[in-house]
Every structure is written in structure tokens, then in C-alpha cells.
Amino acid sequence: MTSHQAETAAAAHGIETRALDRFTLKRPDPKGLLLGFAAFDEKTIRSGLVRLAAALSQRNAPSSTTKD
């Protein structure tokens, strides 16, 4: 998954983050996300990370197409 795809998946689950590829000019996609924690307490951070993990897992899940 690219940084941009991860950012899109997170946004679809209401999680605000930035793809690291936004901050590179000459390097390939570092495949990561920039997360901010300063304004949140530990419980909120933990909840957000669980939601982010779910969003990324759903994005990586194989499609459920059937063959006839």
C-alpha cells in the first residue's frame, strides 16, 4: 500500500493523517503516515490507533470475488 492509499483509507474512517510521500521530492514513497498526538490523551490515541489499524486492514484485505 502506498502512503497516499493509507492516507485515503484512514480518512475514510475519520482519521486525519498525512501521507509521508507528500514530504518527499526525489525519493520513492517511504510508505508511511505522519501522525500527531500532542492534542490527545492516551485513551484517545489508543482508540485512534485501533481505528487506523482496522482501516488499513480493510484496505489490504483481498477482494471477495468468486469464480464461476
Order of strands side by side in the largest beta sheet?
A: 1-2
Terminal CA distance reads 29 Å
Largest sheet: 2 strands, antiparallel
How many whole angstroms does the radius of gyration measure? 14 Å
Give the strand tally: 2
Averaged pLDDT: 86
Order of helices and strands: HEEH
Q: In total, how many domains does the architecture comprise?
A: 1
Number of helices, counting only DSSP H or I runs of 4 residues or more: 2
Structural class: mainly alpha
Describe the secondary structure blueprint for this structure.
Elements lengths: L2 H10 L5 E2 L13 E2 L7 H19 L8
Helix pairs in contact: 1-2
Structure description:
- It is a single chain.
- This protein has 68 residues and is mainly α.
- The chain has one domain (3-60).
- Helix content is 43%, strand content 6%.
- The protein has a two-stranded antiparallel sheet with strand order 1-2.
- Residues 64-68 have low confidence and may be disordered.
Features:
68 residues, mainly alpha, two-stranded antiparallel ribbon, 2 helices, flat, disordered C terminus
Overview in brief:
With 68 residues, this protein is mainly alpha-helical. The protein has helices at residues 3-12, 42-60, and strands spanning 18-19, 33-34.
